[in-house]
Amino acid sequence: QLQLVESGGGLVQHGGSLRLSCLVVGNTLGDYAIGWFRQAPGKEREGVSCISSTGGSTKYADSVEGRFTISRDNAKNTVNLQMNSLQPEDTAVYYCAASRLVGPMPTFAITLFEQWGQGTQVTVSS
Fold first, then answer.
1. Among 28, 57, 82, 124, which one is most buried in terms of CB atoms within 10 A?
2. Do 51 and 58 form a contact (C-beta atoms < 8 A)?
3. Straight-line distance from the first to the last Cα atom of the chain, in angstroms, rounded to the nearest whole number
4. C-alpha angle with apex 4: 107 to 2, nearest 5 degrees?
């Protein structure tokens, strides 16, 4: 059974950086598009970034464009999210999710992601 394990969250100051990792266990990463989502207290879960199964296409939320970079290493079964210039409004629980339904065009359609990790907390202090 496919499992996703996030790591790399923590507390960072405004303007700092963090690197989140999503390890895929139990299946081949190359079969899946991977999305990163986040949910802040009292808010709905929102898409942050998504990468196609081949890594050829990526998508970013407007709020993180130019600051976050998603990448995948299929040989290591890992997808990373490099987050730079972090701001207090980036504070949230971050989740990675896997989809075999997403085609070549990355998406933030939550219903297409069939497996989710447990989440990792990111807190940015002002």
1. 124
2. yes
3. 40
4. 95
